[in-house]
Amino acid sequence: MVSFTNMLPFMLPVFVFPLIACAAETVLGVDIFSRHGDRTAKSTPPANLTNLGYSQIFTWGTYFRNRYLASNATSRIAGINSDSVKQSQITASAPLDTVLMNSAQGFLQGLCPPVGSSLGSDTLRDGRLVSSPLDGYQLIPIQPITSGGGSEDNSWLQASTNCAEALVSSNKYFSSSEYNDILASTTDFYKPLTPSINATFSADQASFRNPQTSKSLLYYSNAVLGSVNSTNRGPKVFDLLNVASIHNASLPDSALLTNSTLFQLRTLADRHEIGLAFNSTDPIRAIPGSTLVAQIVQGVDNTIKSQGDSKIPVERGAYASFLSFFGLANLLTLPNSDDSFSGYPNMHLL
């Protein structure tokens, strides 16, 4: 039996693999796929995990430790080592991306913290006692994956899938009636924001064309080869202002950035990115979501084939995987939905 345990907004619902015996539940493994913590803006590359983001992701690791690993965990995984890591039980992977790799490390530090001088030491044959550095800091390898590499420095994450057909599919959104209707109807909303962004962006880049992705991101000089005309890449308005609203105490014309305005910017960015990530009549657009499903199935399969020895696959990924997965799983059209799945997952939670 496989059950869903719904986590907080920036974590994909975590897959729990319980074996039900009578009235008791035995948790055999947990597949964890999540985003990163707070980062710097994409418009000032390279994007980096901030101290706030590091704290967020470490806190999440501690949360999962208290839920699944600790000796007194509320849903302790059967046979899991509570303190000293058994390498076969926990696997970790992340794209070759600074933000995502560092987030994976921070998460694992909370999930498997230092074990102290007692457990973190060995007695050698000659009687010498050798303690590991950093009070028993535990080393867990993170497998780099090529898909999604450089995600947090890419204006639109489809560019990191290395799939030309998916890029062509996403490009079709820019000729859709939905896109052009929103672009025309939101001009007056974006223009007053120019003073807050003119140190980075020109006035004509303040539009729905650039709520999160770039201005002409998916227009090809050669559609067959999938080469993107990078010289025309524009700004990411919502991304810049969202980061600034958290970190920049001297943001120009900050009075313009009311909670209502930021919410509207976020809503428009959500709509824009969903349009690029998923279309029910063009499945190739959802390549990142399909890849995520395959990763989850592989994690379940490894737990079964290892007879429970492989217990926790920990994976990091960017928001394109979430959005296209939400579409593939029909979560965008849930009846009586509170819109939890209608935008990219929040990375700013603490």
Give a quick set of tags describing it:
single chain, two-stranded antiparallel sheet, 12 helices, globular, 36% helix, alpha/beta, 350 residues, six-stranded mixed sheet, disordered N terminus
Structure notes:
With 350 residues, this protein is α/β, with parallel strands linked by helices. It is 36% helix and 14% strand. The strands form three sheets. It has a six-stranded mixed β-sheet, with helices on both faces. Strands 5-6 form a two-stranded antiparallel sheet. It has a two-stranded antiparallel sheet with strand order 8-9. Helix 1 packs across helix 2 and helix 9 packs across helix 10. It starts with a strand and ends in a 22-residue tail after the last helix.
Summarize the structure.
The protein has 350 residues and is of the alpha/beta class. The protein is built from 12 helices and 10 strands.
SS class: alpha/beta
Mean pLDDT: 80
Largest sheet: 6 strands, mixed
Number of helices: 12
Number of strands: 10
Q: What fraction of the residues are assigned to beta strands by DSSP?
A: 5-15%
Biggest sheet, spatial arrangement of strands: 1-2-3-10-4-7
Percent helix, as a range, is 25-40%
Please specify the SSE layout and strand pairing.
Blueprint: E1 3-5, E2 14-21, E3 24-34, H1 51-69, E4 90-95, H2 98-111, H3 116-119, E5 121-123, E6 129-131, H4 133-136, E7 142-145, H5 164-171, H6 177-185, H7 187-190, H8 194-197, E8 220-222, E9 227-228, H9 237-247, H10 259-277, H11 287-305, E10 312-316, H12 319-328
Parallel strand pairs: 3-10, 4-7, 4-10
Antiparallel strand pairs: 1-2, 2-3, 5-6, 8-9
Helix pairs in contact: 1-2, 9-10, 11-12
